[in-house]
């Protein structure tokens, strides 16, 4: 079969177009750093990259949830630590007052300090984080306790999702913590009532009732400590969840990079090869265009 000049010219032109398209692809990869910059480049890989990006985005959100949860628990633990200090001081003061050897001025001074300690205790119950009262449940935009110790919040649990289907509660009810449940004293020690009873008893010189409140203060300390222990357990779980999320994001990012990012040295090498092939095709095209009818007659 005889190959005509026209067929040869078409073949050369087609090769030039193929080389040019491949060169454009490589130039785009070199400029973007991506093997797949649009779905049409590789539909299957593009879908996989989208799924991997979604996993990383979800991991970022879980990370923010964990960070928020750690902040709430840390602030709660700090408040409870100060509550423990207040109760310890109240117990020391009560032990001094119930001896019956204090003069009226000393008793008055003791009552005043206990009153201030109660207010300090309630102030810890109104601890805020970013404008939210952390012991107020869902009603956390206003103080959880009034000045007399009435709980104004809710007992709702605030949950954060630290992984798919893995929620963790980050708050504690102020009613359970300071008042021993709802109604007060129904499930624990009503520490606010212990303060009130103590102050009233000392004011009326009822040392028996005042002495009985020492047990309530001890129970209150145990109640606060139990909540602090639970905070430690939840904090450990958040730390573990954060470690899992960070590992997942690292491995997923690496997989996505393998699928999406180019090997810049390989792309540059391929570009050089395409340029050489393009120049050779141009030279062949020029050679074909020089052939005339006289070449076939000689």
Automatic annotation (TrEMBL):
Residues 5-137 form the Flagellin N-terminal domain. Keywords: Bacterial flagellum, Cell projection, Cilium, Flagellum. It comes from the Bacteria. It holds the Pfam family Flagellin_C. InterPro entries: Flagell_FlgL, Flagellin, Flagellin_C, Flagellin_N. Residues 216-297 form the Flagellin C-terminal domain. It is found in: Bacterial flagellum. PANTHER family: FLAGELLAR HOOK-ASSOCIATED PROTEIN 3 (PTHR42792:SF1), FLAGELLIN (PTHR42792). Belongs to the bacterial flagellin family. This is Flagellar hook-associated protein FlgL. It comes from Geobacter benzoatilyticus.
